Amino acid sequence: MPKELHEPWHWLTASLNFLLEYDSDDKPRDETIKPLVDGGTEGFEGHARVIIPGVTPCFECTIWLFPPQVKFPLCTLAETPRTAAHCIEYAHLIKWDEVHSGETFDPDDPEHMKWIYNEAVKRAELFGIPGFTYSLTQVFVIV
User: Fold this and answer.
1) Strand partners of residue 21
2) pLDDT of 89-126, one tens digit each?
């Protein structure tokens, strides 16, 4: 595979464009256009879009529309949490595996989410971090 196609969006764009055939006016022929419906969710947020090769901007051209992934250094989570998000990520990334070794966390399971919330609240109280809610836990748990 050519080096430029290693990223999934490069491959996707190249594959969709490979299927296109053009008419004499250099416009894509309708019967060769294969639309891509892209969508996803993360917590309470999500996106959906239709990419039409040769007509709309390509997948790669709109990659900047995705929000940056929020990641925290593990040392901050384990040693010096300063926000509710740090406490939630600690419960999710560190505490869950310590207590539930081998069990996969399921954000759609209310008992799992409740456990994360309770552990995060304990940590927030320990470090004096205010403003903690269950809804905030649901937003910050990223799987």
Assistant:
1) none
2) 999 989 999 999 889 898 889 999 999 999 999 999 99
Asked if residue 131 has pLDDT above 60, the reply is yes
Q: Which two tokens stand for residue 23?
A: 């008419």
d(CA 28, CA 35): 12
CA separation for the pair 83, 1 (Å, rounded): 43
Active site residues: 75
Question: Do 92 and 124 meet the contact criterion of CB atoms below 8 Å apart?
Answer: no
CATH class (in words) of the domain with range 74-140: mainly alpha
Q: Within the chain, which residue ranges are assigned CATH 1.10.10.520? A: 74-140
Task: Determine contact, residues 86/77, Cβ cutoff 8 Å.
Answer: yes
Which helix (H) or strand (E) segment holds residue 38: the answer is: strand 36-42
pLDDT in tens, 11-60: 888 888 889 999 999 999 999 999 989 887 766 677 788 989 988 888 77
The whole-model pTM stands at 0.53
Tell me which residue has tokens 């490979």: 18
Rounded to 10 degrees, what is the CA torsion of 23, 18, 41, 85? Answer: -120
